[in-house]
Amino acid sequence: MKMKFMRIPSLIMVVVLLASVATGGAVAQSGADDAGLYDSLEEMVPLYNDNADSVDLGPISLAGSSNIYIEDGDSTITYSLTMDDQNRITELADSPSEDAKRKITTDRATIEALATASNPAAAFRDAVANDDIVITGEDGQTVERIKWAVINAFKGFFI
């Protein structure tokens, strides 16, 4: 009975996420440029890459380009990053990428915590596991949206 009870919330989440995929998400607006936040992320990249082996997301791959949407009060700051197959950041840009397949959504406090963490890769993994960072498919990337809807519904088994 307990297993059946636990399956119902998971199925509801999958249905809600798939419905949001079908209807499309809200378009994020880039807020004012925040050079200080971007600079702190740039400075964090080498330490992140040194600890990239700490990002064990199971069978989940983040290789390729992703846009990062950082909610900051009433505005949203948008950056992009590219990762390789070993979860290392190979490129960080202070603007969104038209080639991004994924959307990484978080808030400013989470990004600031990552930028100052002693192991930002592990902090990233933990933030994904705790839903402080949510990964979905970028608008127009239907396969990625469906894939990430399923992953987010069952990530407790992976992360």
Strand percent estimate: 15-25%
CATH topology: Nonspecific Lipid-transfer Protein, Chain A
Strand order in the sheet with the most strands: 3-2-1-4-5
Biggest beta sheet attributes: 5 strands, mixed
Question: Number of DSSP helices?
Answer: 5
CATH architecture: 2-Layer Sandwich
So what's the CATH class? Alpha Beta
Shape: globular
Helix content: 40-55%
Number of domains: 1
Report mean pLDDT, rounded to a whole number.
80
User: If you compute it from the alpha carbons, what radius of gyration comes out, rounded to the nearest whole angstrom?
Assistant: 16 Å
Q: Secondary-structure blueprint of this entry?
A:
Layout: H1 2-23, H2 35-50, E1 64-72, E2 75-83, E3 89-93, E4 102-107, H3 108-116, H4 120-129, E5 134-137, H5 142-154
Parallel strand pairs: 1-4
Antiparallel strand pairs: 1-2, 2-3, 4-5
Helix pairs in contact: 1-5, 2-3, 3-4
Question: What does the model show?
Answer:
- This protein has helices at 2-23, 35-50, 108-116, 120-129, 142-154, and strands at 64-72, 75-83, 89-93, 102-107, 134-137.
- The protein has a five-stranded mixed β-sheet.
- The radius of gyration is 16 Å and the shape is globular.
- By secondary structure, the protein is α+β, with helices and mostly antiparallel strands.
- The protein has a single domain (30-157), classed as Nonspecific Lipid-transfer Protein, Chain A (2-Layer Sandwich).
- Residues 1-33 have low confidence and may be disordered.
- Helices cover 44% and strands 21% of the residues.
- The two termini are 25 Å apart.
- Strand 1 and strand 2 form a beta hairpin.
